[in-house]
Amino acid sequence: MSDDDVFQTRLVAAGEGSDWALTDLYRALYPRIVAYLRGVEPADADDLASDTWLDVARGLGRFRGDERAFHAWAFTIARRRVSDLRRQRARKRIVPTPPDLLAEAGSVGNAEDEAFSSLGTDWAFALITSSLPRDQAEVVLLSVLGDLGTKEVARIVGKRPGTVRVMQHRALRKLARALERQGVTR
User: Fold this and answer.
1) Separation between Cα atoms, residue 138 and residue 25, nearest integer Å
2) Average pLDDT, rounded, for the chain
3) pLDDT number for residue 178
4) Element (H, E) at 10
5) Residues 83, 84, 89, 91: what is their CA dihedral angle, to the nearest 10 degrees?
6) In 10 A of CB 28, how many CB atoms?
7) Rounded to two decimals, what is the model's pTM?
8) Under a CB-based contact definition with an 8 Å cutoff, are residues 74 and 56 in contact?
9) Residue 130: HSE in the Cβ half-sphere, 13 Å Cα cutoff
10) Is a pLDDT exceeding 90 seen at residue 20?
11) CB neighbour list of residue 164: distance below 8 Å, 6 or more residues apart
12) Which end of the chain is more exposed for a tag (fewer CB within 10 A), N or C?
């Protein structure tokens, strides 16, 4: 049985409500979605990931395609959730509470830092999000975390594949220069 046959069997079973199949799909994809969302919207990543997964689970019966198309579909849903959140924020401006005022209220943990630490990739996300413009960071995160090709990333972000290749190339050059400045060797 080929990998695609195994995936199709898992997908059909998950669409029919099989717990084992849904769990397998969740374990294979959800951590990547969370990591991508932490890269583009760190403060709301967990909520966005939950909403994304609910949309994925609801749409399983309608999805048609192979495993690569499934990943692209799921990351498209995640990106649309991010866009929805950003539109919502733009409509109702929220004034964030300064951290020092929160600290005065009592001991506060930093869920984002704890999550990154637990993944052991906090430095990578910090480097990507601080060194790159938002659109380049998103392309890199979709490519790496989503394990998506140029065509899938281009479709998700609404750009041409050539544009995505150029963005990714520029982003990787910037990251290489940033790593060299930090003394990280190849």
Assistant:
1) 23
2) 85
3) 83
4) helix 3-15
5) 110
6) 14
7) 0.69
8) yes
9) 8
10) yes
11) 139, 150, 153, 154, 157
12) C
* Burial (CB count <10 Å: 0-12, 13-18, 19+), residue 10: buried
Kindly state the tokens that stand for 4. 């695609």
For range 87-106, the mean pLDDT: 69
Residue 161 scores a pLDDT above 90 = yes
- The encoded tokens of residue 117 equal 């630490």
pLDDT bin (cut points 50, 70, 90) of residue 114 is low
pLDDT at 70 over 60: yes
- Distances from the Cα of 101 to the Cαs of 104, 112, 121, 161, in angstroms? 5, 19, 29, 46
Show Cβ contacts of residue 51 under 8 Å, excluding neighbours closer than 6 positions.
81
What are the structural domains of the chain? 3-181 (1.10.1740.10)
At 158, list the tokens: 């609404």
How far is CA 177 from each of CA 67, 118, 127, 167, rounded to the nearest angstrom?
34, 27, 11, 15
Contact 48, 88 (CB under 8 A): no
